[in-house]
Write a structure and sequence with these properties.
Rossmann fold; about 625 residues; about 15% strand; homodimer; five-stranded parallel β-sheet
Chain lengths: ~625, ~625
């Protein structure tokens, strides 16, 4: 039984959370007080009685995890931090100001925020990743709490999470849906029909508990039931009122994302019982430490020069090798592990492999969740289908997440399957992600060396692999630094430079041979590190070859390797400037929608094969030296 | 009651569909015979008795629509076309060959394919768009049939579709899930648990019918029940066997996406009763024509020069005006219509507005479905959240769809809400879409003129709008062609050129004023058409200003406006080549993860405000003319 004293304590804290949400947003002049107020009772009980969290040690392995999926309720989260005694009231009042850690939506600039939220529907799938970490890797009893808004359940990604959480019996995952009925522009789709939410959740295999989200006893009982069950995840569907506690706001439209004016705030605070500054002692986690195996020396796979090996095959081999050496490497795949070759890791280390089925958003979100617990997730699918998770990748960058994404079957060179399976925009998409790394190997040995480096690389690291077999051109002793490149052919007489990566590097080599037979010597650069790109080597080549550059890529003409090379010659930030001969750069890339055909036919039709390269180089050399060629 | 004769006819056709799927893939040497075979009985009954479709007139308004969401079963679809008598057996045998209309996955290169499939989980949400068109716009009784694979139900987008179809009571939408239990790499998540599928579908408000997908009578009854119900959509959950009918394939792993060798094919065909060449008469649709209002003269909104108006506000005004003039314009929004200002259209033309709630994938998919029926869908949300639907945009381009997407709240200039709400990759992402158009207006009058042109523009057209108010700089008489630009400032003495668009154009103007005060005259170009970009005007400016270009954009440094400008100077396809003075191009763009702050603070911190532009121009001019400045 809940005592009157306990009820009073919760109520007082809830009112404080409401008041602080109002105060902070009023000072900021913007923000979401009403969406914070609807969840205040839920959070008061959670913070006081259920959350186990060492604020002095956010990385404590056995900390509960809390994700504010409805990130716009950031004022509530920050008010909770104040109540926990870890930020001052003064800092709380810096909400949304330049330089403040208290951004408009939570980000890991704050040490207690594991992941950025604010793109709705992402908190629960990330919570699945944390749930997997807790149950299967850490094997620690911490719980993962996720507070969702009701509107965000319209996102399919939320149902990917419902599906996967049940499949993996994540009894450590507790979702709380704040059903305040009002979205940004009016009533949500399901309004207060909490039964509809419950039916859906149950059909997906969850325990679903409907409560009055302002009844503190019901909240307490629901949390208690959630942590007691051990065969499925729990969702608490809490009927609430937006702006709860202030008559002029409560359950009224037109108040989404609006701060109160100072006078109205004053009145609201009075109505809520006046300012208070309670600090509560949040429960400490039990001691706990995951048992990881010891790292072993890495034995990368090696391939004989001249052998024909697909880089996706080498990815699979290297990942398995990495798995043997590094116990914190984890792999994910979206039901195509026999195409990406994640399957080898899955067979060798089933306890560190998570099948994500065809749910790319959930896959990337799970990777983000896993890396919160310091695991190194490698997630793979066809490169084309990583576009499905682009918003998750974007947000992962804001989360300062360290994840490794691998896209196979890039470009027209996949052949007969046709354009739906061809990634032609992935380089552009991944380059345009904050602090990302984009790698595109051309052979198996290079792939293995790059996979090794991905493991410890910070940020969003993307590796593009090729479906087709390609010749191994590098010896096993070669090293490939991120940010570097390889000059494959070079002489004092080079008249032009061909820059390729992945599949087109092999076309460049063929073109180089043919040009040589015609008396034209070219430099060939393997730009396997698309981002960061090797500016210095490109500048040197342009200097040495009269500015004649031909870039060739199996990608739409926008934003890919060609764009990376152009950027190397633009004045950007601290990049070294180029003072050589005027650039005569020809970009060979995909211009027209491809269809089906053989890889060779499609490379030719797209004008990115050796024929096209030869022609491009000749047009440059002709242009500069008149009739000499 | 089903007669024996009828059962025999269906069976014979089903066997032919299986045989033809085997034959075509064996000739091609690749493809998906077994995934075709599991659905053959379902499709035989559909084609013979339920589909109403005029193959001579694919645009017949009252045609039923059929979407093969499990696009890898393309051989089955093509076999159906042969059975319908619209492709020859010879063409069927051209499957997956270069130049054939019969690509590895279906695309609208074939006149009876409305939309490309092959990225799983997209057919049903597109079907929702067609269902909306049929029920609410065309108001015609045609049905929309969607055949899904079981694996693809793991995609959240499928549940967005379940949700929206029920919300809009799309009784004209019939989903058929081919539960053949086997995904690409083994058992699917739910296996043959058809009840789990049914429970989920029912919880989302659908009629769900579980059948044996090889029992022709059950199939017939299920289709009959599906077209009879009139208060909800129907899903038929058909338990099937992959490779059905051939003992060496049936329900066996390891056969996904594998063609049979000729000998094995011969044996399989014999087992299926041998080749046959039945042609069936598909039922014609009833006559029907939607009643559209007559177009009216367009009266675009106009704005006074000097007024402060957000371009998102102008989008809302222009869309409403377009709605008044063009009865085929339809609007969609993802629960932020009061931010994007779609709400004005929604209020004026509620019958042509569809609230998509927070489900951006479903929103874009619905737009694709609507344009199949020749409507002109404008779909808007925050630009950042369009990343959620990137795979749908990619596939829409393969569908040759004509859709208009509008992203508001672009860039750091949104201010306090923080990075999760800031689109900083949208220009890169949309530029890297086949045959796309990317527009980025800086003022209200320009926005209105561009919105007008979007309406008739083919392909994927993207408009980026700004949250903040910006001054109206153009008179109402100005015209803005797609592919053009505006030279805002120009003189014979220009020493450099500043290129901006949207919010940064205003910073460029401020910078231009300040530089003028310091005796440096600059050209200023408004590059509102980011793709296609105005190559000629850029070349002219580079010629006139010693190659000194400063490009400034509120976007990550990769793939956006700066990249578009660089591309204008690269040799790409048929672009005119540049022969002017060497380019000294400085790209100003966002380099570091922003936080919260005022728009001015954030523009300044990102080094993309007037201060940064002034400094960049000075560095260029200094570089060229020594101590003159």
């Amino acid at each position: 039984m809940t005592t009157q004293e306990q009820l009073h304590q919760w109520h007082e804290l809830a009112q404080q959370l409401r008041i602080d949400s109002i105060r902070a947003t009023t000072v900021a002049g913007s923000g979401h007080p009403t969406s914070s107020m609807s969840s205040a009772d839920l959070m008061a009980v959670l913070l006081t009685n259920y959350l186990h969290y060492d604020f002095d040690n956010p990385h404590h392995p056995n900390n509960d995890r809390f994700i504010l999926s409805k990130g716009h309720a950031a004022p509530l989260l920050y008010a909770m931090y104040k109540a926990a005694g870890v930020i001052t009231d003064e800092e709380l009042m810096s909400l949304r100001q330049m330089g403040s850690r208290l951004e408009g939506h939570p980000t890991p600039v704050l040490p207690w925020v594991d992941v950025a939220t604010g793109s709705l529907g992402q908190g629960l799938p990330i919570g699945v990743g944390l749930g997997l970490a807790g149950k299967y890797l850490d094997q620690l009893p911490y719980n993962v709490w996720v507070l969702l808004g009701d509107s965000e359940t319209a996102e399919g990604s939320v149902w990917e999470a419902f599906d996967h959480a049940a499949h993996y019996t994540l009894d450590n995952l507790i979702a709380i849906i704040d059903v305040n009925r009002l979205g940004q522009r009016g009533q949500t789709e399901l309004g207060w029909n909490t039964q509809a939410y419950a039916n859906r959740a149950k059909a997906f295999g969850w325990q679903a508990i409907e409560i009055d989200g302002h009844n503190l006893t019901e909240i307490d009982q629901a949390f208690s039931a959630a942590i007691s069950i051990n065969d499925r995840p729990t969702v608490i569907i809490a009927r609430t009122k937006k702006g709860k506690g202030v008559a002029s706001l409560e359950d009224l439209g037109g108040w989404h994302g609006k701060a109160l004016k100072p006078d109205a705030a004053k009145q609201a605070i009075a109505e809520l019982g006046g300012e208070r500054h309670i600090t509560i002692q949040v429960a400490q986690p039990e001691p706990g430490q995951p048992t990881l195996l010891h790292p072993q020396p890495l034995q990368l796979p090696t391939y004989k020069q001249g052998a024909e090996v697909a880089t996706r095959r080498a990815y699979g081999d290297a990942l398995k090798a990495l798995g043997a050496a590094q116990p914190d490497v984890v792999a994910l795949d979206a039901e195509v592990s026999n195409s990406t070759y994640t399957e080898d890791f899955a067979e060798a280390y089933p306890e560190r492999y998570f099948e994500m089925y065809i749910a790319e958003q959930q896959m990337v979100a799970a990777a983000v969740g896993l890396q919160v617990r310091q695991y190194k997730p490698f997630a793979a699918t066809f490169a084309a289908f990583l576009t499905r998770a682009y918003d998750f990748v974007r947000m992962a960058a804001i989360s300062r997440a360290n994840i490794k994404l691998v896209g196979s079957h890039a470009g027209v060179s996949i052949g007969q399957d046709g354009p739906s399976q061809m990634a032609l925009e992935d380089l552009a998409a991944f380059r345009a992600v904050g602090n990302s790394t984009v790698l595109y190997p051309c052979d198996a040995n290079q792939t293995a060396k790059l996979v090794e480096q991905m493991s410890d690389r910070q940020g969003i690291v993307y590796l593009r692999t090729t479906r087709e077999n390609t010749p191994v051109i590098y010896g096993i002793e070669e090293e490939f630094s991120i940010g570097g490149s390889k000059v494959i052919r070079s002489s004092d007489q080079d008249q032009a430079t061909i820059i390729g990566a992945g599949i087109t590097l092999h076309e460049a080599i063929k073109a180089g041979d043919r040009l040589k037979n015609e008396g034209i010597t070219v430099r060939i650069i393997d730009a396997y590190s698309v981002k960061p790109i090797d500016v210095q080597t490109l500048h040197q080549a342009a200097n040495d070859t009269e500015g004649n550059l031909v870039v060739v890529e199996d990608h739409w003409q926008e934003g890919g390797l060609g764009a990376a090379v152009l950027d190397a010659f633009a004045g950007i930030g601290d990049l070294p400037s180029y003072d050589g001969p005027p650039l005569q750069l020809i970009k060979l890339a995909v211009h027209h929608m491809p269809g089906s055909g053989t890889p060779e036919e499609l490379l030719h039709a797209a004008n990115i094969d050796a024929d096209a390269i030869v022609e491009a180089v000749k047009s440059q050399v002709r242009h500069l030296i008149g009739t000499r060629v």
